Amino acid sequence: LSVASVEDPVVMSKIRQNLREKHARHIADLRAYYDSEIQSLKQQLESSHRTASSEDLKKINQSLADRDWFNLYVINRCDQLDAALNEANARIKALENKNNLLEKQVADWRERFCAISDTSKVLQERLEETRTAHKEKDNTISRLKSRLRELQEAFEKAYKLSDNKNTRLQEENKMFQNLLGEYESLGKEHERVKDTLNTTENKLLDANTEISDLKRTILKLEAQLKQVEHENTLKLRH
Question: In its keyword annotation, does this UniProt entry include Coiled coil (predicted)?
Fold first, then answer.
C-alpha cells in the first residue's frame, strides 16, 4: 500500500472490512472442515463398532479426543485473533483521530502565521513610507535652515547699511518671523513623525517575535505529526 492510500480513511475502512470478512470466512471454513472430520470419524466409528477390536476402538477414541482438543485449540486461537484484530482497529482509529487533530492544529497555526506575515509586510511598507516622509521633512528643514541663515545675513546687511529703512526692516522682520514660525511648525511635525516611526518599529519588532514563536510551534507540531504518522504506519504494517 502507498502512503496516500494508507492515509485515505475510505481505503482504511475497506481494508478493515476485507480483513474482517476474510477472518470470518477462515473461521467458518475451519469449523466446517473439523465438523466434517468429526462426522466422518463418527461414521467410521459406527460402521466399525461391530467388527473392530478393542485396541482399534481405543485408537479411534484417542484420535477423536485429539481431534476434539485440536478443534478447541483452533477455536480459541481464532477468538484470540479476533480480539487482537478488534484491539488493532481501535488503536488505528485512535491514531487517525489524533492525526486529524494535529492536522487541524497545523492548518490553524499556518493560517495565523500567514495573517501575521501579511500584517508584518504592511507594517514594513508603512515603516518605509514613514522613513521616506521623514527624510523629505529633514530635507525641507535643511532648506528652511539655509533660507533662514540667508535671511539673517540679509537682515544684518540691511541693518548695517541703513538705520532709516524701518519699513523695510519691519517687512524683513515679519518675513523672518513667518519663516521662523514655519520652521517651528515643521520641527513639531518632525517630532510627531519620529514618534510614529518609533511606534511602527516597535510593532514590527513584536510581529517578528510572534512570527518566530509561530515558526517554532509549527515545527513542533509537524514533528509530532510525523511521529504519529510513523506510529500509524508501523501499526498498519503490524
Answer: yes
Neighbours of 132 (CB within 10 A): 10
Q: Domain residue spans in the chain?
A: 60-188
pLDDT (tens digit per residue) in 172-211: 788 888 888 888 888 788 788 888 888 888 888 888 888 8
User: How far apart are the C-alpha atoms of 172 and 168, rounded to whole Å?
Assistant: 6
Percentages helix, strand, coil for the chain, rounded to the nearest 5? Answer: 95, 0, 5
Determine the Cα–Cα distance for residues 93 and 59; give it in Å rounded to an integer: 51
The identity of residue 180, as a single letter, is L
Please report, for residues 101, 124, 199, the alpha-carbon distance to residue 115 in angstroms, rounded to integers and kept in the order given. 21, 14, 20
Please measure the distance between the N-terminal and C-terminal CA atoms of the chain and give it in whole angstroms.
13
